[in-house]
């Protein structure tokens, strides 16, 4: 989750619904969710099998990254950075 928080992206966490009829089988906990770049949960499910939906506005990613420019605070002295323009050629 920390990378998602730093990257300021939409996140979809999908989990299978809880199956309680046979306790000897693997028990999932459900609770799928959709989280926006500001870390607000915009859709979620409980334990039962349901579909969840959300309108994903990709412009919100740029808006949040502009308001919270975490990338400006990177400690480049602590790790190697990769220049995407050089590596993609």
Describe, in plain words, how this protein is organized in 3D.
This protein has three helices and three strands, in the order H-E-E-E-H-H. The protein is an alpha+beta fold and 89 residues long. The chain has one domain. A hairpin with a 5-residue loop joins strand 2 and strand 3. The longest helix is centred in the C-terminal third of the chain and has 9 residues.
Structural class: alpha+beta
Percentage of β-strand residues? 5-15%
Strand segment tally: 3
Largest sheet: 3 strands, antiparallel
Helix count?
A: 3
Low-confidence stretches: none
Can I get a quick summary?
With 89 residues, the protein is an alpha+beta fold. It has helices at residues 2-7, 59-67, 84-87, and strands at residues 11-13, 33-35, 41-44. The chain has a three-stranded antiparallel beta sheet with strand order 1-2-3, with no helix packed on it.
Please describe the topology of this protein.
Blueprint: H1 2-7, E1 11-13, E2 33-35, E3 41-44, H2 59-67, H3 84-87
Antiparallel strand pairs: 1-2, 2-3
List keywords for this structure.
89 residues, single chain, alpha+beta, elongated, 3 helices, three-stranded antiparallel sheet
């Amino acid at each position: 989750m920390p990378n998602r928080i730093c990257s300021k992206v939409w996140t979809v966490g999908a989990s299978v619904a809880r199956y309680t009829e046979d306790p000897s089988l693997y028990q999932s906990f459900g609770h799928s969710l959709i989280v926006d770049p500001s870390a607000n949960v915009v859709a979620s499910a409980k334990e039962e099998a349901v579909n969840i939906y959300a309108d994903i506005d990709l412009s919100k990613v740029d808006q949040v990254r502009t308001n919270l420019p975490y990338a400006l605070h990177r400690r480049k002295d602590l790790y190697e950075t990769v220049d995407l323009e050089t590596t993609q050629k």
